[in-house]
Amino acid sequence: MKKQLTAFIAAIFITLCIALGIFAISGVAFANSNGVQASNVSGQSASTTAGQGASTDVNASNVVSQVQVQQQQQIQQLQSLVAQYQQRDQQYQQREQQYQTQLNQANAQAAQAQQQLQQYQALVGALQQRGIITISSDGQVYINR
Questions:
Q1: Are 67 and 21 in contact, with CB atoms under 8 Å apart?
Q2: Nearest to 131 by CA among 143, 119, 115
């Protein structure tokens, strides 16, 4: 269940990062004042406008590549975190198995001690019935001859 929750959170985080990247690129493109403007003039003005458009394309591709690099770094960080959580989960499962083994051993010892106690009680009861021993009210045991 924890693995699924971790994976779900990671997926949501990655999706949000990509969405923020898209919005960032859209905002840069919208706010860019050096963009290509529509022009009905031919000749030299058209070539100047085309030169500005190429510059804008380079800037936009730089922004896109920077966003992609950041996203890749975030993905790597998230994958690293997922790997750490998986390792911790495995360690916790190993500890749980160790504790379960220790608990089973303690329960077995308690059952054995309970069985021995019942045997001792049965032995003391049999010795009392046959008159071999007498136990006083203060707990002292007397051997009868």
A1: yes
A2: 143
Return the higher-pLDDT residue of 8 and 122: 122
| Residue 25 C-alpha from the chain's centroid | 32
Beta-carbon contacts of 64 under 8 Å, excluding residues fewer than 6 positions away, are 25
Mean pLDDT of 102-114: 95
Domain boundaries, position 83: 2-115
Statement: residue 127 has pLDDT above 90: yes
φ/ψ region of 13 (left if φ > 0, alpha if ψ in -120 to 50, else beta) reads alpha
Decide if 128 is inside a domain.
no
Q: Is residue 121 part of a domain?
A: no
Report the C-alpha gap between 88 and 41 in whole angstroms.
67
Q: Coil, strand, or helix at residue 36?
A: coil
The reported pTM is 0.43
Binning the chain into helix, strand and coil, the percentages to the nearest 5 are 80, 5, 15
pLDDT tens sequence across 26-79:
887 777 766 655 445 454 444 444 455 556 667 777 888 888 889 999 999 999
Is 37 within a domain? yes
In a domain, 140, yes or no: no
